[in-house]
Design goal:
Helices cover 33% and strands 29% of the residues. It contains four helices and five strands; from the N terminus they run H-H-H-E-E-E-E-E-H. Strands 4-3-2-1-5 form a five-stranded antiparallel beta sheet, covered by helices on one side.
Length: 126
């Protein structure tokens, strides 16, 4: 018999993959790395809601952990507006000082904490 048919010889001898098979393997591997969205309990939802409200009322910086398909995202900013199902966070890019804002869905928030960093504006209003 041919050595190609012994043990794993048939597959060892053919090292070529079709492009469609390669794309499918990559797609399957990426799909396995996808993170499922967590369901938060009622108490955690209330804590997040209270933290976001404090950020908006007192203009305090909030640190958010947000759901991402493949890894969590982190945003630090001040909640400036809210409407049914989403809220607006104003941020400043530390590398270039550009002010930006984005609307975030409440269902994407995994964790919210008021920032511990010093804020000069908070000292003025005391």
């Amino acid at each position: 018999m041919s050595k190609k048919l012994e043990r794993n010889g048939l597959w060892e001898s053919s090292r070529m993959m079709l492009p469609q098979h390669k794309e499918s393997a990559i797609r399957n591997q990426k799909e396995m790395q996808r993170i499922q969205r967590l369901e938060l309990d009622e108490q955690e939802v209330q804590i997040i809601s209270a933290t976001l409200s404090q950020s908006q009322m007192y203009k305090k910086t909030v640190e958010l952990t947000l759901y991402g398909e493949y890894q969590p995202r982190f945003i630090t900013g001040i909640v400036t507006r809210s409407k049914h199902g989403e809220f607006r966070v104003d941020t400043v890019d530390p590398s270039n000082g550009v002010e930006e804002w984005s609307w975030i869905s409440y269902k994407d928030v995994l964790k919210a904490e008021l920032s511990k960093e010093f804020n000069y504006d908070e000292m003025i209003y005391r």
